[in-house]
Write a sequence for this structure.
């Protein structure tokens, strides 16, 4: 996983695949889990591609997730 540049958003790291992104949050959610996988199938290609861009830029990913893909994850660990 790659470290996420902004420490203020609550994201530690991320991993990018061809049709997915996995985001590791610094603290577990209220229902448990810190790793969230968002895929083309679960969140849509446009959203996943935008999330990849934001992750690599190191800013804006958490607000984007909150506003657009919060519950569209494929899996959570």
């Amino acid at each position: 996983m790659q470290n996420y540049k902004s420490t203020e958003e609550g994201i530690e790291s991320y991993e990018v695949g061809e049709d997915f992104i996995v985001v590791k949050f610094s603290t577990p959610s209220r229902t448990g889990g810190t790793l969230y996988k968002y895929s083309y199938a679960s969140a849509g290609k446009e959203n996943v591609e935008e999330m990849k861009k934001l992750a690599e830029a190191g800013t804006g990913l958490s607000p984007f997730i909150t506003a657009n893909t919060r519950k569209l994850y494929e899996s959570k660990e």
